[in-house]
Amino acid sequence: MKGTSVRKLEGLDRHETIAALRLRMADIGGDVPAHVVDDSDVVPVGENLQALLPHGGLPRRAVTHCSDTASLVVELVEQATSQGQHVGVVGWPDLSYAGVARCDRVIAVPDPGTDPLHIASVLVEGLDVVVYRTGVELNLSPVRARPLLGKLRAGQAALVMVGAKVPSPALSISAEVTQFRGIGKGSGRITGWDMRVRTEAKGYRPVSGVVTVGAQSRPGEHTQPSLRVVK
């Protein structure tokens, strides 16, 4: 795929950078929103979920390993996009975005073709968060990961890898759904669920807690999704 190198992008202004990324994404049928990431060191993930993260968010210009838990990833996408961030998702064709209110801030590449790492490397140059998922566990050698990590460090994105792994990630997150809410015996509907989340980061002790997404609603009452952390 033809494209502009990181070195060339470094000399461009905001509008030229976005235009260059749009040209590159056109080759894979995507688009890059006219958005420039801020200078903070982390991507916000919501005031309650941030209690489990060492710096209160996903580290920019760094890799986060994440378990293959769709509920957690969708919640991260929802929290990031609801706070003005733009997210790319590579290689997850069956991921449901029903829980994401601002899907206009998501670039989904469900079938990245024969070189998904290259697609991910394009997106990390201009977005806030990129989720890269492989169907099977894949350990990337330093040589194979070097081009992607080089572009990651040159940009402002947080790279969340699901299935794929690199040596020494900045953060690791694992989660499992432990309980569904709103369902009675033979009746009701799912209004929320609990996830036990565990995080590990360099220089910090592991932290775990139960995150509740959504809440039980009263009859006839519409409940907005919310988060709370129970340690």
Q: What does it look like?
A:
α4 packs parallel to α5 (about 140-155). By secondary structure, the protein is an alpha/beta fold. The chain contains five helices and eleven strands. It is globular and about 50 Å long. A nine-stranded mixed β-sheet has the order 5-4-6-7-3-8-9-10-11, sandwiched between helices. It has a domain at about 40-170: 3-Layer(aba) Sandwich (Rossmann fold), CATH 3.40.50. The model is unreliable at about 1-10, about 30-40 and about 215-230 (pLDDT under 50).
The parts where pLDDT drops under 50 for at least 5 residues are: 1-8, 28-39, 216-231
Q: End-to-end span in angstroms?
A: 47 Å
Beta strands, count: 11
Structural class: alpha/beta
Mean pLDDT: 80
What is the CATH H-level superfamily of the domain at 42-170? P-loop containing nucleotide triphosphate hydrolases
Just name the CATH architecture of the domain at 42-170: 3-Layer(aba) Sandwich
Oligomer: single chain
- Order of helical and strand elements: HHEEEHEEHEHEEEEE
CATH topology of the domain at 42-170: Rossmann fold
CATH class of the domain at 42-170: Alpha Beta
Percent in strands: 25-35%
Largest beta sheet: what is the strand line-up?
5-4-6-7-3-8-9-10-11
- Characterize the biggest β-sheet: 9 strands, mixed
Shape: globular
What's the gyration radius in Å?
18 Å
**How many helices?**
5
Helicity level: 10-25%
